[in-house]
């Protein structure tokens, strides 16, 4: 079964969650980060 509208497919994808804390990761275009900004900041300290 094929989706008629490709945009509908992307709208139905679940939000990406941070594997460290479980918060939703707010992605930007061309971003492949897995962790949220807060967890990334903790790693830099």
Automatic annotation (TrEMBL):
Could you tell me which InterPro entries the record lists for this protein? YhfH-like
Pfam family, any one: YhfH
Name the source's superkingdom.
Bacteria
The protein, known as: YhfH family protein
Report the source organism: Peribacillus psychrosaccharolyticus (Bacillus psychrosaccharolyticus)
Q: What is the lineage of its organism?
A: Bacteria, Bacillati, Bacillota, Bacilli, Bacillales
């Amino acid at each position: 079964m094929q989706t008629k509208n490709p945009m509908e497919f992307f709208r139905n994808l679940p939000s990406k969650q941070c594997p460290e804390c479980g918060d939703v990761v707010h992605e930007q275009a061309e971003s492949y980060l897995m962790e949220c900004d807060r967890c990334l900041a903790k790693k830099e300290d």
